[in-house]
C-alpha cells in the first residue's frame, strides 16, 4: 500500500470498470475502496459487517429490505450512509456515481448471500490501484 | 446513530469548533468523523491503530517522525492518506481544511502519547452531531 497521499481524482482516472472497486488505502484490517457505478448492482447481504458509503460524485440509491418492508435511500454527492450488517440491499445509480467505501479487508462486493451475479457486476474483494 | 443519509456539508455547517471531530457514521466498531481544522494540532501517537484521513476541502499537512527522520506530506482536497500505528505525527492546516477520518471508536484525538495539549485542541474521542 502506498506510503504517499493518493489523489482520488487521479485514482478514479486510472480505471473505467463499473462496480469494480479499487483499494486506495488500508486502515488496520479495513479497506478504503473507490468505485465507479452506473445502473443496478444486485441484491446482496453482508452477514458479518456493516458497509459504509460516501458519494464522491453523482447520486447513489440504495434499496433495502427490512422487516418493515422494502425502502430506499438516496445519497447525493457528499452524503454518507452505513448499511447495517445483515440488511439485504441493492445499490443503484441511474445517472452514474463515484463512491468511497469502508469495510473490512476481504469483504466481497456481492456479500455472503446474493442474487445470481450478472455479467456487468465484478464479484471481488477489491482490486489494487495497479495503474499507478 | 442516524439511519438516514447525512449530508456532510450540512453536518459541517452544524458546528464551528476547530480540531473537535464530530461522528457522522459508525461502521462496526469504527467511527467516521469529520473535523474543521486550522493552524497546528500537536505531536501524538496512536500505538494501536492506523488513522485514515480524507481531505474534504482545503489542504492538510501531516508531519511525521520516522526512524529515517522527520518529514511531512501535503494532502490537497480529495487526497487520502493513512498514518500507520506507532508513527508520531502532527497534523496542521495553515490555511484551514475540513477532513474526514476513519478510526476505531474510542480513539482519542491526541493519541496514547502526546505533547502537552494546548487550549485550542479538543482531546476527545469524537462528539455526536447534536445539532441535528
TrEMBL record, chains A, B:
Residues 36-95 form the Cupin type-2 domain. This is Cupin domain-containing protein. It comes from the Bacteria. It comes from Amycolatopsis pithecellobii. SUPFAM superfamilies: RmlC-like cupins.
Amino acid at each position: 500500500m502506498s506510503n504517499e497521499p493518493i489523489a482520488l481524482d487521479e485514482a478514479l482516472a486510472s480505471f473505467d470498470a463499473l462496480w469494480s472497486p479499487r483499494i486506495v488505502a488500508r486502515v488496520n484490517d479495513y479497506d478504503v475502496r473507490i468505485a465507479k457505478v452506473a445502473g443496478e448492482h444486485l441484491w446482496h447481504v453482508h452477514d458479518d459487517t456493516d458497509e459504509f458509503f460516501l458519494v464522491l460524485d453523482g447520486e447513489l440509491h440504495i434499496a433495502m429490505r427490512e422487516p418493515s418492508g422494502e425502502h430506499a435511500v438516496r445519497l447525493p454527492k457528499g452524503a454518507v450512509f452505513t448499511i447495517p450488517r445483515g440488511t439485504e440491499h441493492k445499490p443503484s445509480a441511474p445517472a452514474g456515481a463515484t463512491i468511497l467505501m469502508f469495510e473490512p479487508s476481504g469483504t466481497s462486493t456481492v456479500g455472503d448471500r446474493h442474487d445470481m451475479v450478472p455479467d456487468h457486476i465484478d464479484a471481488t474483494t477489491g482490486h489494487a490501484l495497479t495503474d499507478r
